[in-house]
Amino acid sequence: MKLDSIDEDILRIMQDDIPLVSRPFKVVADKLGVSEEEVMERVRKMIKAGIVRRFSASIRHRKLGIKANPMIVWKVPEERVEEVGRLFASFDEVTHCYERATAPGKWEYNVYTMIHGYDTGSVEKLAEKLAKAAGLNDYMMLYSVKEYKKTYKRYE
After folding, report:
1. What's the pLDDT score for residue 152?
2. Which residue ranges form the domains of the chain, and what is each CATH number?
3. Of all residues in the chain, what percent carry a pLDDT higher than 90?
4. Given a cut of 90, is residue 54 above it in pLDDT?
5. DSSP string, 45-100
6. Are 68 and 123 in contact (CB under 8 A)?
7. What are phi and psi of 29, to 5 degrees?
8. Predicted confidence band at 136 (pLDDT cuts at 50, 70, 90)?
9. Are 133 and 142 in contact (CB under 8 A)?
């Protein structure tokens, strides 16, 4: 799909905050001087073409009081990485789940999950729940202390 100037403008507008109104595509359409239906159809085409992958909310969890944000690192036997990764990723409370290389003798943890909570007690209970579900005992909870920067790809 070849983008024209209207498609590009739609992407520029929608990569920032989408208005919390009943018809957000109408707001975009009004800014561009086109119909709401045209904006919606163009967005559908960009989704179908894989140019737009998803719409999502980006929550500033610390501003909501969600201050217990550990990365849980797991030592998972190599033959179980795929199984355990899929299991962890199936939990709604897990926001990130991925595999990383180990450094034998220095760092043996190979599966990482990120969870968020209001206090350490709640996230520790969740970690125990994950450990029990996977039948794993070897993990560490690494708490973030400060968030320096969050950036996202932007269409310029």
Report:
1. 65
2. 5-48 (1.10.10.2890), 61-143 (3.30.70.3460)
3. 77
4. no
5. HHHHTTS---------GGGGT--B-EEEEE---GGGHHHHHHHHHTSTT--EEEE-
6. yes
7. -60, -45
8. very high
9. no
**CB-CB contact of 46 with 115 (8 Å):** no
For the chain, the average pLDDT equals 92
pLDDT at site 88: 98
For 20-42, what is the HEC assignment?
Answer: CCCCHHHHHHHHHCCCHHHHHHH
User: Do 124 and 141 contact (CB within 8 A), yes or no?
Assistant: yes
- Residue 97 to residue 57: CA distance in whole angstroms: 19
- The span from the CA of 41 to the CA of 17, in Å, is 20
What is the distance between the alpha carbons of residues 15 and 154, in angstroms, rounded to a whole number? 7
Of 117 and 18, which is predicted with more confidence?
Answer: 117
